[in-house]
From TrEMBL:
Top-level taxon of the source organism: Bacteria
Official protein name in the record: Regulator
Lineage, top ranks: Bacteria, Bacillati, Actinomycetota, Actinomycetes, Kitasatosporales
Region (Disordered): 151-184
């Protein structure tokens, strides 16, 4: 006598969530497949697969975790496989998760570093997802610093292969997990950050991005898995957050936008472990800038406002100015003249209130009159207020130090676009050609895209002599 298969119980939890999310069965399957691609998985689910899940069949492998992440992104609240009536499985991290604990944060970000170090060509193809901004920014806003981040060495820890634990010796080349983190280690992380920041500003994000990622994998991860007290741990997480944000910034500059988004989300979580609310607001500002660049103005406004809410009115005037200018740029890309102008005025007043003796975080010290003029120039260009854009862009170029080569290039393109908008074709082409020459010397996709945007604006004048001269100059740059 043959045994009949056990009767499956319909999955009512999953059915209820599908209804709440407004998914069709085919739509859910498509989103699970898309999320799988972010992890390098070729899943090929369809509406029939979802029908089987609803009838009680358990999906295999890491799929329950992927399905849970799809619903988390859609509904804006953290959901697990069990919440969907599915079997628990090992977490599968896409890099957009806002970790529940510092330990999980280290697991997620170190996994991202390792993937990027080993297969960055694939990761660079990951798409940016506006929906992936909602949960992390909300969790950061309502969250607070972790109660404890310190990691004590277990008294009875047995090292690999049964060898006795050996403290790191002076001159030892490699750091291993479990070693004590010192103040010197953290100073080294800070110095490395300054070095890579300088390279990025001068030569573009592509110049040394991969070296930074390898440094994070081989030096920073072992520190995070080392031993340290609470105070040292907070400083360590703060330094790791800064380097991770910088890895995101350099990824953004080479147009690896999905990868950059993941780095920013993880930097935000590390800043929470550090207990550094102000730095978290800076990460959100960075995320807002990326959203502006990609044309997601509404999300950019929301990120800027979450940053303002999170840091409150206690931040130094320079930080307040930075916060308001980022919001202004978001309103500018949406064409919201009144809101943009209001935010620019707030930024200007905040910077005027700054005093020489103010304690300004290291990451905000770049924000000065030159940067404010740059923000004004960009915003007025986006609003097609070309005379004001030209005045502010010229002022920024007069004030901006040569070390900020990429920022100067961007501002030169803004000035060229403003001159074009004012009908000054000859001057616009001269400025545009200068910017194109600089872009050819950099490893920055953003620099190239700025130049291409200017060239699109030139299209109506393509037969004019100044434009032909521009094209000849650019062709000579290769």
């Amino acid at each position: 006598m043959t045994e009949r298969p056990a009767q499956r119980t319909p999955n009512r939890q999953l059915a209820a969530l599908i209804a709440e999310a407004g998914f069709s069965n085919a739509g859910l399957a498509r989103r699970v497949d898309q999320l799988g691609l972010e992890h390098g998985l070729d899943l090929r689910y369809d509406k029939t697969s979802v029908t089987r899940w609803l009838r009680g069949q358990q999906p295999r492998g890491t799929t329950p975790a992927l399905i849970a992440e799809v619903f988390t992104r859609r509904l804006g609240r953290r959901l697990t496989a069990q919440d969907l009536g599915l079997d628990a499985c090992a977490p599968v991290y896409a890099g957009l998760e806002f970790a529940a604990t510092p330990e999980e944060a280290v697991d997620i970000v170190s996994g991202l570093w390792r993937k990027d170090s080993g297969s960055h060509a694939e990761l660079r193809k990951i798409a940016f997802t506006p929906a992936g901004l909602v949960v992390p920014s909300r969790d950061w806003l309502i969250g607070r610093a972790d109660d404890r981040v310190g990691r004590a060495e277990p008294a009875n820890r047995v090292p690999p292969q049964g060898r006795p634990a050996v403290p790191r010796q002076r001159g030892q080349a490699e750091r291993g997990p479990g070693q004590k983190v010192t103040g010197g280690d953290i100073s080294a992380l800070r110095s490395v950050g300054e070095l890579f920041r300088t390279l990025d500003n001068a030569y573009g994000g592509g110049h040394a991005r991969q070296a930074l990622v390898r440094y994070l994998e081989h030096e920073t991860e072992p520190m995070l898995r080392g031993t340290y007290g609470e105070q040292t741990g907070r400083r360590l997480f703060a330094a790791a957050a800064d380097l991770t944000r910088l890895a995101g910034w350099t990824s953004y500059d080479i147009a690896a936008h999905g990868l950059a988004q993941r780095y920013f989300v993880q930097a935000l979580r590390l800043s929470q472990a550090a207990g550094d609310r102000a730095y978290g607001s800076y990460v959100l500002m960075t995320m807002s800038r990326q959203a502006v660049y990609l044309g997601h103005g509404r999300e950019a406004v929301q990120l800027a406002r979450v940053a303002q809410q999170g840091v409150g009115t206690s931040a130094p005037p320079v930080v307040q100015a930075l916060l308001h200018s980022v919001e202004a740029r978001a309103h500018g890309v949406l064409g919201e003249v009144r809101a943009c102008t209001s935010a620019l005025v707030r930024a200007e007043r905040a910077l005027e209130a700054a005093r020489a003796g103010d304690e300004v975080p290291y990451w905000a010290r770049f924000f000065d009159e030159a940067q404010l003029a740059d923000e004004f120039g960009h915003a007025h260009r986006d609003l097609q207020q070309f005379r004001a854009a030209a005045q502010h862009a010229e002022r920024s170029l007069q004030l901006r130090a040569p070390a900020f080569a990429r920022s100067r290039l961007f501002c030169r393109v803004v000035l060229a676009s403003a001159r074009l908008g004012l009908g000054e074709l000859d001057q616009a082409c001269v400025l545009g050609a200068e910017a194109a020459g600089q872009a050819a010397e950099m490893r920055s996709v953003r620099a190239v895209e700025y130049v291409r945007d200017f060239e699109r604006r030139l299209e109506p004048y393509k037969d004019a002599a100044p434009v032909r001269g521009y094209r000849d100059k650019v062709a000579a740059y290769g």
